[in-house]
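Researcher: Sequence recovery benchmark, item below. Answer with residues only.
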């Protein structure tokens, strides 16, 4: 008797291998082939890999002809492998994809390991084959204990590294600390009082002088500029970068975070994570050297986007207002970082920490500082930090409040998970709302005549853009949908509006739609999930790609035209760029840099 056959009953049919082999080959093709030939379809590759992995399992359970104890046993080993491995993998793998990274990635790998083990052990005895299958499955799943992820791109590409390699943040913290020079302890100066109107026959009361407190308007007061629309007016830059490329002024490492910049004079403000401290940092625009830092003992981290604050500082009348990823709202003296007041807005509003952290950038309107805590608007007294009002509870979200005026009525617009809401800045009264369940991330854009553009692009809710029209009449407010399109689907990448068109990211590709009907006019340029600035005098888009490249693209509706491109910074880049005069500032979760652009009068 052949010793390799003594455990098999004579009636046992040989294993049917070919369906499993075909499924395994298909699994390899879609898992590794799609990202190569279609880099923006990594999510599709992941789903296709899972489907092929499940096809292997279906083959094994119902068409392999293996003894039923082997069929059931292999599946049990897979389940146990995932459960045990999740206890020892790096936290970024255990928490990745909302905790589903290990099951999603391991199913295809274990299925492939099963096919290889069965094919190679087909002539082994039953017990030897069982050992080989179990070992292969455990080995396939166990490979995930050797890696970590630095997060994911907008197209679901995982930034995988060996587990023992240090993160950029760890490397930064291991260096000599770039401590800013000691600033003498100066108390925060009071805000300048508004002049008191004089009564008839009386001299006006002079405004008290406050020395050394900058009162000039900020060059770039905060998130997406003064109007929060990413439009830079009265600036014309040289577009022939082959002859006049951007000149690097300085570059330095920075802690993780998705904050952009606020700029006034020679001071640049941003937020970053450094270990267990959430920092508000002030740097010199001229040299990039640190000027001061304010630290809060707070740390936010989630696997997909990483650590750090998400919001951008806001400058107003000598103060810098910041909102951290865990809900800390600060008012600091812009000169030295001295604390004017601080609140925990998450506790004040009863908002639960959202999956991706609080991401709102503060908005200063009159005597109030307004923020959004996961879709809920709340206002604080600008001078004292005392809560003034809280808006209605709505859908979750990550966008920032937007000041607009419609039919002569000032109002605060906010996109949240339920749609678009409008509140009175005076007392937080709900003026109107428009239901459209979406992501609640990108900023709305007022395009005139009470018409507003809103967008959503994750694919998990409403996907596309919608134009709505709000009007105020004798019977109150009315809001009507004008059109909805899927020609442009902005996810967390804000769009701009120019000369009857909207420009933004449709997934990872730049696109243009017409405002009249929402129809797409062109799509082109793979810049990942980046951000952009509009230079209207030149019909020009300055695009910062997800991979840290800077590109110039024509803001015209006829066709996609790229004029120039060069590499600016390394690493995944989701932060909004800033252009102040001829100085361009860019950053991501690893480094930041300043470039001088050549100006032109043409």
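Model:
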């Amino acid at each position: 008797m052949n010793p390799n056959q003594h455990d098999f009953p004579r009636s046992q049919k040989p294993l049917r291998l070919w369906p499993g082999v075909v499924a395994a080959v298909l699994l390899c093709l879609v898992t590794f082939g799609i990202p190569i030939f279609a880099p923006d379809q990594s999510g599709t590759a992941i789903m296709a890999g899972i489907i092929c992995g499940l096809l292997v399992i279906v083959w094994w359970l119902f068409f392999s002809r293996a003894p039923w104890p082997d069929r059931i046993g292999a599946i049990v080993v897979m389940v146990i492998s995932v459960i045990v491995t999740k206890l020892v993998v790096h936290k970024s793998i255990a928490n990745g994809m909302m905790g589903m990274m290990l099951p999603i990635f391991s199913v295809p790998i274990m299925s492939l390991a099963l096919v290889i083990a069965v094919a190679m052990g087909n002539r082994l005895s039953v017990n030897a084959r069982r050992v080989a299958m179990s070992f292969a499955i455990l080995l396939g799943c166990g490979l995930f204990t050797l890696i970590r992820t630095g997060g994911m791109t907008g197209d679901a590409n995982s930034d995988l590294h060996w587990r023992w390699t240090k993160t950029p943040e760890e490397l930064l913290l291991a260096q000599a600390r770039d401590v800013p020079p000691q600033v003498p302890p100066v108390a925060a100066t009071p805000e300048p009082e508004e002049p008191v109107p004089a009564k008839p026959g009386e001299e006006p009361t002079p405004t008290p002088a406050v020395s050394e407190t900058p009162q000039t308007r900020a060059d770039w007061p905060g998130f997406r500029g003064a109007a929060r629309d990413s439009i830079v007016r009265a600036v014309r830059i040289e577009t022939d970068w082959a002859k006049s490329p951007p000149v690097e002024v300085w570059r330095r490492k920075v802690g993780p975070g998705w904050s952009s910049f606020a700029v006034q004079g020679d001071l640049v403000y941003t937020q970053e994570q450094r270990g267990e401290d959430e920092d508000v940092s002030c740097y010199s625009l001229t040299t990039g050297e640190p000027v001061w830092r304010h630290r809060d003992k707070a740390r936010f981290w989630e696997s997909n986007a990483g650590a750090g604050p998400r919001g951008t500082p806001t400058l107003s009348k000598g103060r810098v207002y910041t909102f951290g990823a865990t809900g800390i709202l600060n008012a600091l003296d812009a000169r030295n970082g001295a604390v004017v007041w601080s609140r925990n807005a998450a506790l004040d509003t009863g908002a639960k920490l959202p999956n991706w952290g609080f991401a709102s950038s503060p908005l200063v309107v009159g005597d109030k500082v307004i923020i959004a805590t996961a879709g809920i608007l709340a206002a604080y007294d600008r001078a004292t930090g005392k809560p003034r009002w809280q808006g209605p509870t709505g859908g979750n979200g990550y966008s920032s409040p937007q000041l607009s005026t419609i039919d002569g009525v000032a109002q605060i617009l906010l996109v949240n998970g339920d749609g678009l809401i409008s509140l009175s800045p005076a007392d937080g009264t709900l003026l109107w709302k428009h239901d459209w369940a979406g992501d609640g991330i990108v900023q709305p854009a007022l395009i005139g005549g009470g018409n507003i553009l809103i967008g959503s692009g994750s694919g998990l809710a409403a996907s596309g853009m919608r134009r709505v029209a709000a009007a105020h009449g004798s019977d109150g407010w009315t809001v009507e949908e004008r059109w909805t399109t899927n020609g442009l689907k902005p996810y967390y990448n804000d769009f701009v509006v120019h000369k009857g068109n909207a420009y933004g990211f449709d997934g990872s590709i730049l696109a243009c739609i017409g405002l009249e009907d929402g129809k797409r006019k062109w799509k082109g340029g793979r810049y990942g999930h980046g951000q952009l600035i509009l230079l209207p005098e030149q019909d020009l888009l300055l695009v910062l790609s997800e991979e840290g490249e800077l590109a110039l693209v024509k803001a015209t509706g006829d066709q996609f035209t790229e004029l120039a491109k060069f590499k600016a910074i390394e690493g995944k880049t989701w932060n909004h760029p800033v252009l102040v005069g001829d100085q361009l500032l860019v950053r991501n979760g690893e480094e930041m840099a300043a470039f001088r652009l050549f100006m032109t009068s043409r």
